[in-house]
Amino acid sequence: MKPSGKHQPLFHSSEHRLNSSRAFTVGADTYDAVRPSYPDSVVELLAGRGVVRTVLDVGSGTGIFAAQLHAAGHRVACCEPSPDMANTLRARHPELPVWRATAECTASAPKHFDAITFAQAWHWVDPHLASAEAARISKDDGELLLCWNTLEVEHPWVLRLAKIMHSGDVLTKGFYPTVFEPWHLKRELRTTWIQPIRTDQLFTLMATRSYWLRANQRTRDKMTNNLTWYLHERLGFDPGQLIPLPYRTDAFLYLSLIHISEPTRLRRI
């Protein structure tokens, strides 16, 4: 069994990407309960420690990363297309303003934000349109921060776990996201860490994956049976046992060198 060689999720078409992302119209409470936050070093990429920024977190989900930005002292607003995710964000973090919008059309004023962030979200967007929209709403010296938490599949047992859970967001080690001008890579961060998690929570984590959310009951039962066998028979973990789950975080900070909005001037970098 080999790790993924993908630099981005493999969607057959824009329609396939949109249909997959619509899986997150349900399950926000589950997502918020088990999805991890991000290392503090990711937050510190934004202009360094102690500098306050006006930030739009796009595809905020339940506000996991936005809450970290706010706790660091930044002025944070959120946009999220899923009504279930947005409602959960409002309930969990009433201090954060949130509206329903997409990365391609944020409904934000031009040149308003110091930074635009995407945590676990850029792979769901059209990178041409999202790059242009981020440039439109950011200041001329604005920053774009993209980050991902993925299971660290360099560990063989985690690789098989990811396959059973259909963790489709696991990208190859050393990947770079597709981003278009005027954004130019300024800095990157790659780090690994451990999330303590109980075996029963892995079933909940599996239920936050888009594959599960789109699956029928027969497929879900098969996934549950496979995970039960793997954790308790193959690996010998006890029900409810606390185990160390390795994660990898990849973060990329881009600087806007010029301010443009015409899609015809965009090219891949």
Task: Describe the secondary structure blueprint for this structure.
Blueprint (H helix, E strand, L loop, with lengths): L13 H8 L6 H7 L5 H4 L10 E5 L5 H8 L3 E5 L3 H10 L5 E2 L13 E7 L7 H11 E14 L4 H10 L17 E16 H8 L3 H5 L2 H18 L7 E15 L13
Parallel strand pairs: 1-2, 1-4, 2-3, 4-5
Antiparallel strand pairs: 5-7, 6-7
Tell me what the structure shows.
With 269 residues, the protein is α/β, with parallel strands linked by helices. Helix 2 packs across helix 8.
**Shape annotation:** globular
Backbone structural class: alpha/beta
Q: Give the strand order, joined by hyphens, for the main sheet.
A: 3-2-1-4-5-7-6
Low-confidence stretches: 19-23, 259-269
* DSSP summary, beta strand count: 7
Distance between the termini: 32 Å
Helix content bin? 25-40%
Rg from Cα: 18 Å
**Which strand-content bin applies to the residues?**
15-25%
Q: Provide mean pLDDT, rounded.
A: 87
How would you sum up the major sheet? 7 strands, mixed
**Helix/strand order, N-terminal first:** HHHEHEHEEHEHEHHHE
What is the number of helices?
10
Keywords:
269 residues; alpha/beta; 7 strands
How would you sum up this structure in a few lines?
The protein has 269 residues and is of the alpha/beta class. 33% of the residues lie in helices and 24% in strands.
